Amino acid sequence: MKALQYRTIGAAPEVVTVPDPEPGPGQVLLKVTAAGVCHSDIAVMSWPAESFPYELPLTLGHEGVGTVAALGAGVTGLSEGDPVAVYGPWGCGTCAKCAQGKENYCLRADALGIRPPGLGSPGAIAEYLLVDDPRHLVPLDGLDPVAAVPLTDAGLTPYHAIKRSLPKLVPGSTAVVIGSGGLGHVAIQLLRALTPARVVALDISADKLRLAREVGAHEAVLSDANADDAVRALTGGLGAEAVFDFVGAEPTVRTAGAVAAMEADVTIVGIGGAALPVGFGTLPFEVSVTAPYWGSRGELIEVLGLARSGAVSVHTETYTLDEAPLAYERLHAGKIDGRAVILPNG
Ligand code: NAD
Ligand code: ZN
Ligand code: ZN
After folding, report:
1. pLDDT tens-digit series, residues 86-131
2. What are the Cα distances from residue 260, in Å, to 222, 237, 240, 313?
3. What are phi and psi of 232, to 5 degrees?
4. Could you tell me the distance, in angstroms and rounded to a whole number, from the CA of residue 206 to the centre of ligand 2?
5. H or E, element range at 105
6. How many CB atoms lie within 10 A of CB 22?
7. Residues with Cβ < 8 Å from 57, sequence gap 6 or more?
8. Of the residues 37, 87, 183, 293, which should be mutated to test ligand 1's pocket, given the most ligand atoms within 8 Å of the CB?
9. How many domains does the chain have?
10. Is 182 a pocket residue for ligand 1 (Cβ < 6 Å)?
11. How are beta strands 198-203 and 174-178 bridged, if at all?
């Protein structure tokens, strides 16, 4: 089969032919319908050889949707042709976190060498994807595969982040979304669907600010040196009750802290490598800062349910598998509006 692989540190990913995977006992083979392109892959492909955590070559793609192509021995409850979405942050399935569906925080994944598809295990940007266990699959149940595939990360990750802050996002409150890209433009819609908060979006690109408004942001502010003052002014000087940073770089975490209100939640989702110091006098009183990773299985089911109700519509650009390297180039250059989705069998 054809697959998009990151093969050499620092080089662009390549479309190559690899052996067709076959499902072992307990595994499920999917024919991939759609696979999303996440900015985290750009970060992965920028890591130096000394600290690169995965084996190369690595088939990319941690957002996947497909149809069941074959079942390994002993798998029940699924039939060939079933359309399913893949829950990506695989865990052991039995530790205390996994028992709560929080496989993203599995206590034993590292020790057991369990890695998400595309982030250590062979990923979804390929004609076929091997899934370790049927519990990682959620039925699409009528959702369009292209529109649904980004929900497995670009939807699930902001959903998890926003859920933590729901008690603070009461009527009259403000939520700030920094970075209106793949995750951010879904976050805006989730905030609108789940809260009465006023949503203020920030980005460095006029196109992304346009997208932010289109998907429901009440205000769209250019993320420059004046952004902190502009957002403070929009909140009568008090700041926002929740700030979601989908960049995580030095200027954005600083802005996140600068626009937070007393007792606000600041969530750093972007993996830009910057930190926001917390200590008496550094931030308004009782601001809580966190950096979560992905979301739980239960939350993926909830996000897909929300999409079925029509509350979330992901903006997508589709590419063939041969065009996948171009999708990454365009993402790197900030040229993707919403999410790029690869159609490996399209
Ligand atoms: P993306 O490229 O689609 O979106 C990023 C957006 O941020 C773009 O619109 C870009 O214009 C904007 N931006 C860049 N610099 C900015 C600045 N200084 N101020 C305001 N906006 C700025 O990326 P994505 O796929 O949505 O991913 C967003 C981030 O989240 C990445 O860092 C990614 O690695 C990370 N991520 C984290 C998790 C997690 O579990 N923590 C999961 C998925 C993605
Ligand atoms: Zn991702
Ligand atoms: Zn576990």
Report:
1. 999 999 999 999 999 999 999 999 999 999 999 999 999 999 999 9
2. 17, 10, 5, 28
3. -60, -45
4. 23
5. none
6. 11
7. 5, 6, 7, 16
8. 183
9. 2
10. yes
11. parallel
Q: How far is the CA of 115 from the centre of ligand 2 (A)?
A: 13
Residue 60's domain is classified under what CATH number? 3.90.180.10
- Alpha carbons within 13 angstroms on the beta-carbon side of residue 70 total 12
pLDDT digits (tens, 9 = 90+) for 307-320: 999 999 999 999 99
- Mean pLDDT, rounded, for 183-207: 98
Query: 159 CB under 6 A from ligand 1?
Result: no
Residue 313 CA to residue 16 CA, distance in Å, equals 32
* Alpha-carbon dihedral sign for residues 72, 76, 79, 85: negative
Domain boundary among 272, 290, 308: 290
- Residues in a beta bridge with 86: 137
Q: Which atom of ligand 1 is nearest to the CA of 336?
A: 3
Q: With a 6 A CB cut-off, is 272 part of the ligand 1 pocket?
A: yes
Token digits for 344? 């490996």
Whether pLDDT at 346 is above 90: no
Q: Cα Rg for the chain, rounded, in angstroms?
A: 20
Element spanning 346, H or E: none
Could you tell me the CATH number of the domain that includes residue 238? 3.40.50.720
What is d(CA 87, CA 76) in angstroms, rounded to the nearest whole number?
18
Q: Is the CB of 195 under 6 A from ligand 1?
A: no
Distance 280 CA to ligand 2 centre (A): 33
Residues 6+ apart with CB under 8 A from 43: 271
